[in-house]
Design goal:
0% strand, 2 helices, Mobile element protein
Length: 63
Amino acid sequence: MFHRFNAWRADGTWVRVVTSLLDEMDDRGLIDHELWCIDGTVIRASRAAAGAKKTRIANLPGL
């Protein structure tokens, strides 16, 4: 499945499919050119990824 998807992406098949569908929808008046939607996902980074100070094993009590 991945190889076929990747091949279609590389050869422009997906661009042609989406362009054709959008053209068809626009011809039928199904696209509202006045409406714009933006979506974003927020995922909190772990403390380590956010630059938190690392704890070294040698610094832990009892070691």
